[in-house]
Amino acid sequence: MNHRVSRRRLLCGGTGAAGVGLLGFATGQTSRQRPRTLALIGDRYHNPDYIRVSLDRLFREVGIPVDYTILYDQLSRDLLKNYDLFVCLRDGMIWPNGYLGPDAYTDYEQRLENDFPEPKPESWITEEQGAAVKEFVVAGGGFYSLHNNSHVSLSSKNYREVMGGAYIGHPALRPFQVRMVNKEHPITQGIQDFMVNDEQHFVAYDKDSKHVILESENLDGLEYENHGRKSVAGWAYPYGKGRVVFTAVGHTNHAMWVPAHFELQKRAVRWLLKQI
After folding, report:
1. Which fold has domain 7-91+125-272?
2. b/e string for 45-75 if b means 16 or more Cβ within 10 A?
3. I need a labelling partner for 220 at 20 to 30 A (CA). Which of 77, 99, 191, 195 fits?
4. How far is CA 229 from the centre of its chain?
5. What is the number of other CB atoms lying within 10 angstroms of the CB of residue 101?
């Protein structure tokens, strides 16, 4: 099935590097000589609008067309073959029976006139979809996993194998430092450690430690449950003929656009496309 549609038929237009759509796919560039990106974005806790605003700026500055989708169920080998880079900023949950709101404020529940069923999440990814992402990278594609996307790895062995780790949890928004662990990597070279007010995501990392490029630490001494103050916060490694990058910061545009972090993202995209 061909999921791409012309720009004239898009219900929701975009302003990215080549003209993009949110609820479908744009044709982007007619020539395959220019690399193209597919971004799967948005979930209950991460509105796709802020993500697109952030990524529009990123891909505009690196000069690469990007097509957005929220249609997680259409992720497949057939879809990915049209692209050189796959970006994902969404978690692994869907809520088929609904939920009260994106932030689940308990005060809202107490003021409802009618009872609402307890929201229950389900996993959306299949092992076939995880295998499609893995095969895409093995064949030479780039895979940029951002922020809460590590959560998808909890539901798919194939996805976790290529992505490289999995979500543990995070405290509420608060300041922490992001430190360059490998200062010689093309993504981090010359970038200074920086502070950010964000969700400090704690993740399990499965691969060789030599591929870790970032670490986060709460300098105020605040710990997250029994996981301490520090976590791996980013990695980059070759996988088959392709490459994989994960960076953990990204719950708000403020966090995405901290200058040092924004530069890291641009470098990550270029490294994944083997431009640096």
Report:
1. Rossmann fold (3.40.50)
2. ebebebbbebbbbbbeebebbbbbbbebeeb
3. 191
4. 23
5. 10
Type of residue at 249: V
**pLDDT score recorded for residue 244:** 98
Place of tokens 């922020």: 147
Sorted by where each begins, the domain ranges of the chain are: 7-91+125-272
Residue at token pair 């951002």:
146
Alpha helices (H) along 144-258: 157-163, 253-256
Q: Tokens standing for 131?
A: 């295998």
The predicted pLDDT at position 7 comes to 30
CA atoms within 13 A on the CB side of 45: 17
The three-state secondary structure class of 247 is strand
Closest CA to 198 of 171, 180, 165: 171
For the segment 166-185, what is each residue's pLDDT rounded down to a tens digit?
999 999 999 999 999 999 99
Task: Name which of 25-29, 194-198, 217-221 the model is least confident about.
Answer: 25-29
Give me the chain's average pLDDT, please.
88
**Whether pTM exceeds 0.85:** yes
**CA pseudo-torsion sign 248, 169, 75, 244:** positive
Helix, strand and coil in the chain, % to nearest 5: 30, 25, 45
**Two structure tokens written together for 58:** 């990123």
